[in-house]
Automatic annotation (TrEMBL):
Coiled coil: none annotated. PANTHER family: STAGE II SPORULATION PROTEIN E, STAGE II SPORULATION PROTEIN E-RELATED. Its EC number is 3.1.3.16. Transmembrane segments: none annotated. This is PP2C family protein-serine/threonine phosphatase.
Length: 387
């Protein structure tokens, strides 16, 4: 039996074992299999926390949070890292970065790095599949308790990052453990990406409830196959019918054609849109229209503009601009620098870096709600096999 067939057999055994494992026992089952099949002495899962600031071990103990640590290098660069007898592997499913798997005692004669990377990806798929049925992994990814509003907002998200051959996408909510009304949503079908970013109104659970209503209304319209303008109109009607204009939401809706790079946009009193083209940061000028739910029967007009391969869009909510402005008269210029500096990073790294730069600039954590979303179009490319 050749090595390729042996590897396939080993992977089949591990996959079957994970499928048979209880939802809350995936990592322990994988650790036992890794010891049996590869002779590894230990296996631990580290999940990235809600703030993108710590890698928290599932089994308790100290977290690796210092810049330059092997676990963070693995997470940031998404490749295998060997250090002091430990092999670190990215645990990522379809671009959603869950964390890092640390495997101790790897014998290169028994297993290759490529095989271990496949095992980590297999674990990522299983973690994604069971998260709705157990709280174990969600609880272990928290460094402190979420507020109720934040719990609602994080459960509403489609994910925090997404990667396909033609685009990369990532977003983050701040303050991560106490966010109230700001959020984002996205979907793609291989031909288009739809993105909405909501600048919430109100406080606490009331703000989260209003945002949830808008998000579900937009999803309902999108899934009915409606145009972007009709999606905005349906959500507008849903919010107005419930709140009669007393509450409304600033929202930016985008639709990216993954073949042509054409962006269709509706600025409904929205967060601001920055374009990064090379080293140039440009505020994309859009026609500002009524926020969703402000008036009965608003009509929305889409605009279009063209992206070139490699260009990025950053959607930045008022909380980010306000924090930069309050820190000094050069806040807008500082934000441009942060965006420019993040251009060489993957979208999730870029979002994390931009917010870290902003915290350093204002010399504190962000207090008001803030959202940053990064969308990069790579150009028209056929998808490789999904991971």
């Amino acid at each position: 039996m050749d090595e390729r067939t042996q590897m396939a057999d080993r992977m089949t055994e591990i996959r079957r074992s994970l499928l048979e494992a209880p939802a809350d026992g995936l990592v322990e089952r994988l650790a036992a299999e890794a010891q049996r099949v590869y002779g590894c002495s230990a296996l631990r899962l580290f999940q990235v926390d809600y703030r993108l600031a710590a890698l928290l071990p599932l089994d308790g103990g100290a977290a690796r949070t210092r810049p330059g640590d092997p676990a963070w290098r693995c997470f940031d660069h998404q490749h295998l890292v060997d250090s002091d007898g430990v092999t670190y592997l990215p645990v990522t499913v379809r671009g959603e970065r869950i964390g890092v798997l640390a495997v101790t005692g790897v014998d290169p004669a028994r297993v290759t790095g490529a095989e271990l990377l496949e095992v980590a990806t297999m674990l990522a798929h299983e973690l994604a599949a069971v998260r709705a049925g157990t709280d174990r992994y969600a609880l272990a990814a928290r460094s402190r308790r979420l507020t109720l509003a934040a719990e609602m907002q994080w459960e509403l998200l489609p994910g925090r990052s997404r990667e396909r051959a033609s685009f990369g996408l990532a977003g983050q909510l701040e303050p991560a453990y106490a966010v109230r009304g700001d959020t984002f949503d996205w979907s793609d079908d291989g031909h288009r990406v739809w993105l909405s970013v909501i600048n919430g109104m109100g406080d606490n659970v009331a703000a989260a409830s209003l945002t949830a209503l808008a998000t579900y209304a937009l999803r309902n319209a999108r899934r009915a196959g409606l145009s972007l303008a009709d999606q905005a109109a349906l959500a507008d009607q849903a919010i107005y019918s419930y709140h009669q204009g007393a509450q409304y939401l600033g929202t930016l809706l985008l639709e990216l054609d993954l073949t042509a790079g054409t962006v269709t946009a509706i600025d409904a009193g929205s967060p601001q849109l920055l374009r990064l083209a090379g080293d140039e940061v440009v505020l994309e000028e859009l026609e500002e229209q009524f926020p969703l739910g402000m008036f009965e029967g608003s009509i929305y007009r889409p605009q279009r503009f063209q992206l070139e391969p490699g260009e990025r869009l950053y959607v930045v909510s008022d909380g980010v601009f306000d924090a930069a402005a309050e820190a000094g008269r050069y806040g807008a210029g500082a934000l441009d620098r942060f965006v420019r500096r993040s251009g060489s990073l993957a979208p999730l790294q870029a979002v994390r870096s931009l917010l870290a730069d902003l915290r350093a600039f204002v010399e504190s954590d962000l207090v008001d709600d803030a959202v940053v979303v990064c969308l990069e179009w790579h150009g028209a490319r056929p998808d490789a096999a999904g991971r």
